[in-house]
Queue: 2 jobs
Job 1
Amino acid sequence: MSESESSNQPPAPEEQERIKSEAEWVDLLRQEIGRVIVGQKYLVDRLIVGLLANGHVLLEGVPGLAKT
């Protein structure tokens, strides 16, 4: 089976359940971080991506937003 044929199939039910569970976990994490970092949804999303990717995040912004 070629790669293009296999990508057209929907995920298996157990895979769909795992994706749903992980999405709920990320939403909960976003809510909890949002309690501390208010009004910065884009920043919070990028921080979560950096965390999940095991990478580094460079925070840029105006002074006074507690980026350190």
Note: The chain has a mean pLDDT of 85.
Job 2
Amino acid sequence: MNLVAGFIQIGGGHPSFPEENDGVAQANKVNLYAIIRGAHYRFHVAAIIGERGGYFVVPTEARSDVIVLGVVPQPNFQVVIYELDWETIEKVGTRKGDSYEVRLADTHAFKEVKTFSERL
């Protein structure tokens, strides 16, 4: 999450983290806010779990006006960030209680985020 906040700041945006008593963030699983080119965003940042054959856990509460970002670390201090849209999450993900598991193998179906210097 801090890494994504740093990329947003490098791109000229303004990231911030929710306060502990932020009811909107708690209800929607928002773990990062940002203003990018004048637009306000609510993000849920999900790091990949596991290595090969890994997956993202995406809470269903993050559906409402929240952009889900999936972060995959790469060798040599590199990272790939995907915008996980809900239509595709529901299509390729597996529902597990109050969340979806989205396999790394299915990330080809999602848009890769190349920069935060433009609106998403």
Note: The first strand starts at residue 14 and ends at 16.
